[in-house]
Write a structure and sequence with these properties.
The chain is an alpha+beta fold. The protein has two domains: 77 residues, Beta Barrel (OB fold (Dihydrolipoamide Acetyltransferase, E2P)); 165 residues, de novo design (two linked rop proteins) (Up-down Bundle). It contains seven helices and eight strands; from the N terminus they run βββββααααβββααα. The strands form two sheets. Strands 3-2-1-4-5 form a five-stranded antiparallel sheet. Strands 7-6-8 form a three-stranded antiparallel sheet. β1 and β2 form a beta hairpin. α2 runs antiparallel to α3, α2 runs antiparallel to α7 and α4 runs parallel beside α6. The longest helix has 19 residues. Bound molecules: zinc ion. Zinc ion (ZN) binds next to loops.
Amino acid sequence: MKPPDDALIYNTRALVIRKTDYGDHDQILTLMTQNRGKLSVMAKNARKSVKRFSGILELFYALDVVIRENSRMAHLQEASLSEPFENIRKDILKTAYASYFSEIVNRFLEEGTRDEGVFDLLFHTFSDLDSGQRTCEETSLFFQLKFLGLTGHKPELSACIACKKTLDHMDHVRVLFDVGEGGIFCRRCNRGTGKTLMLTKGALKQMIWFEETQPGKASVIRFSRKTLLESLAFLERFLPFHLEKELMSLKFLNTIRKE
Ligand SMILES: [Zn+2]
């Protein structure tokens, strides 16, 4: 066993997903790192002196960091800016979406669980928000579906979870989705129990398409805005349900969208 003061020093790329002040001088950052999963680090004197980290410890920034970690705490030793995604911070709606994605990552993932897939997804998502290549709604749909897949909460959208009858063989325009079971039911198998909602076939097909597509390629097909909003409303209900927590950033996002 290693002695408690046997510190480990390593470099990694990281996205800043949360930032809180600590005392008068310091900050605690929550990072989604490329190599070490989600990680909370102490940034000593980050508040006291802007020079200490050149003023780059900002939300949604991609940084290259050097971390010194012992059994008690991880400390940020050095940080250099990799990608500021500055258009996110200039736009309140983009900021609201980035906050929502960050809170999802922060609340779903345990500290220190290695997850390169989630880092890559969040990096691509911030990059899409920044470039505006896709709309915020498309970016959000893509992020949420991919994130559910990566964390083992993928909803069953293409076939009845009881009898495996596929979506294409269901006659009704609207299909029943059981939130607790995490999938669709055909009319024959639905027992009318549980927490259910109705989804159009169009929204289901749209979500299946987003699940299967790769980052940066989702702008090839344009879906109707109505379908897009239906899918978004569904995911924004489904995700907090599985998280069993209310997401503060979702309230903020809803306020911004109303304006
Ligand atoms: Zn069925």
